[in-house]
Design a protein that fits this description.
The longest helix has 23 residues. This protein has ten helices and nine strands. Helix 3 crosses helix 4 and helix 8 runs antiparallel to helix 9. The protein has a six-stranded mixed β-sheet with strand order 1-2-3-4-6-9, with helices on both faces. A three-stranded mixed β-sheet has the order 5-7-8. By secondary structure, it is an alpha/beta fold. The protein folds into two domains: 212 residues, 2-enoyl-CoA Hydratase, Chain A, domain 1 (Alpha-Beta Complex), CATH 3.90.226.10; 47 residues, Lyase 2-enoyl-coa Hydratase, Chain  A, domain 2, CATH 1.10.12. 36% of the residues are buried. Strand 3, helix 2 and strand 4 form a beta-alpha-beta unit.
Length: 277
């Protein structure tokens, strides 16, 4: 299907087979579009998620990104329906290693997006689908959503960064419970565990995520990108290094027109208009 962001298309922009891309001002929504497979990610989708992630990250006019799925489902994980048809031996191992490297690239591309990202989850988010949602900065779920680190049921170990993101979301022992037992949990349980930021009635999900995305897009892009980076790094640095990073970030902020605009808006008792410079 063709990309539906006319303003974003360039001569070298491909047409995506498994993704729908919609733009509302500075907010871009990426919809995984394989509803017949509950949006399971095949090799084509992994490649397209990587491409669109890189393109969005390099586009200064994109201020916030929403990731969701078509047909009332988020993502049922990697499409493993053809695993048994690839033969065995060394050839299969080489193919699998290449596939995992591509998945690693997708995970890192979405994790390092400078813009704030929101996963909007209806239906199932399991396996790599759940961990794709966890790579996003915020996760908002409808009340009928279902979640699972389903890998163990498939004879697999956790992937798509879940061994790193899941303990940071819910704590180590909760992460072990979810990953080792591979239970499917409902949205209220996910909210209680801290797996999701918000749970809402399904009918209210679109409006709520749209509001959050609009608020994020209206924020100061440079400051938000630096805040996101520092929070992502918070488990890896000392307090001293964190304070050093904060000082460097604030020095950059005070040199921007956006910070001057924020000060003037405060003085003039109005909402600031940030331009990203």
């Amino acid at each position: 299907m063709a990309i539906s962001i006319v303003r974003w298309m360039t001569a070298d922009t491909p047409e995506y087979e498994t993704l729908l891309i919609d733009r509302d001002d500075a907010v871009v929504t990426v919809t995984m579009n394989r509803p017949e497979r509950k949006n399971a990610a095949n090799e084509v989708m992994w490649g397209e998620l990587l491409d669109v992630g890189r393109r969005l990250g390099a586009d200064p006019e994109v201020r916030a990104i929403v990731l969701t799925g078509a047909g009332g489902e988020f993502c049922s994980g990697a499409d493993v329906s053809d695993m048994g048809s690839r033969g065995g031996g060394e050839g299969r191992q080489v193919h699998q290693l290449a596939s995992m490297r591509r998945i690693t690239e997708v995970c890192m591309a979405w994790y390092h997006l400078p813009q704030p990202t929101v996963a909007k989850v209806r239906g199932v988010a399991v396996g790599a689908g759940l961990n794709l949602a966890l790579v996003c900065d915020l996760l908002v779920a409808g009340e009928t959503a279902r979640f699972s680190e389903i890998f163990a049921r498939r004879g697999l170990s956790i992937d798509f960064g879940g061994s790193w993101t899941l303990p940071r979301r819910v704590g180590l022992h909760r992460a072990k419970e979810l990953a080792l037992l591979a239970d499917i949990i409902d949205a209220p349980t996910a909210e209680t565990m801290g797996l999701v930021n918000r749970m809402l009635p399904d009918a209210e999900l679109d409006a709520f995520v749209s509001d959050w995305a609009s608020r994020l897009a209206a924020g100061p892009p440079i400051a938000l990108a630096m805040t996101k980076r520092m929070l992502n790094n918070s488990h890896e640095v000392t307090l001293e290094q964190a304070l050093e990073d904060e000082g460097q970030s604030q020095t950059i902020n005070f040199s921007t027109a956006d910070t001057r605009e924020a000060v003037m808006a405060f003085i003039e008792k109005r909402q600031p208009t940030f331009q990203g410079h």
